[in-house]
Design brief:
The complex is a heterodimer of chains A (about 120) and B (about 110). Chain A has about 120 residues and is mostly beta strands. Helices cover about 0% and strands about 50% of the residues of chain A. Chain A contains no helices and eleven strands. In chain A, strands 2, 4, 5, 6, 9, 10 and 11 form a seven-stranded mixed sheet that branches. Chain A has a four-stranded antiparallel sheet with strand order 1-3-8-7, with no helix packed on it. Chain B has about 110 residues and is mainly β. In chain B, strand 7 and strand 8 form a beta hairpin. The chains are: A mainly beta (about 120), B mainly beta (about 110).
Chain lengths: ~120, ~110
Amino acid sequence: EVRLLESGGDLVQPGGSLRLSCTASRFTFSIYAMNWVRQAPGKGLEWVSTISGSGLATYYADSVKGRFTISRDNSKNTLFLQMDSLRAEDTAVYFCAKGGQLLSYFDSWGQGTLVTVSS
Amino acid sequence: DIQMTQSPSSLSASVGDRVTVTCQASQDIRDYLNWYQQKAGTAPKLLIYDASNLEAGVPSRFSGSGSGTAFSFTIDSLQPEDIATYYCQQYADLPITFGQGTRLVIK
């Protein structure tokens, strides 16, 4: 069974930075696209970013473009999300999710990590 | 952006009922439509991909249909463990977008 474990969520001030990690196991990490999806408190799901298996292709929601950077280290089976210039509206639980194919469905999810942006 | 509109936003039904949720896309998305179940305090779970394909291990009482702009998700014979919020999601175009969710409660 696929395992995804996020970490790095914290309380951060507006304008601050945070780096999320997602450690994957029990599947061949390097051949699958990976994704970040977030959920603000009491709200629905919002796609944030996707990275191809090789790491060469990346995609972002307009709401985070230029502020967030997705990356991966296939030697360590780890996905990252570097979050800069954080805003209050970035407050959410951030889930990493394994892609079935690039930019398609999300077939396995981590338990999520909470990012709170507040002064 | 492609807007996904789910209906209803909330739904109350009895154990054993047949339940249907609809999802309307603001433009043609062919069959690039997925359905997820999210139980309280947990991560979403993929149930249906590409409009009508049942994800491995998902009970057969769940099904999906539709193409183009109109889609539906059905639970045959509702079970107590089906209490959750259900989301549709399109991937025909970026950005990937989700419906607002349908909260299902047991009467």
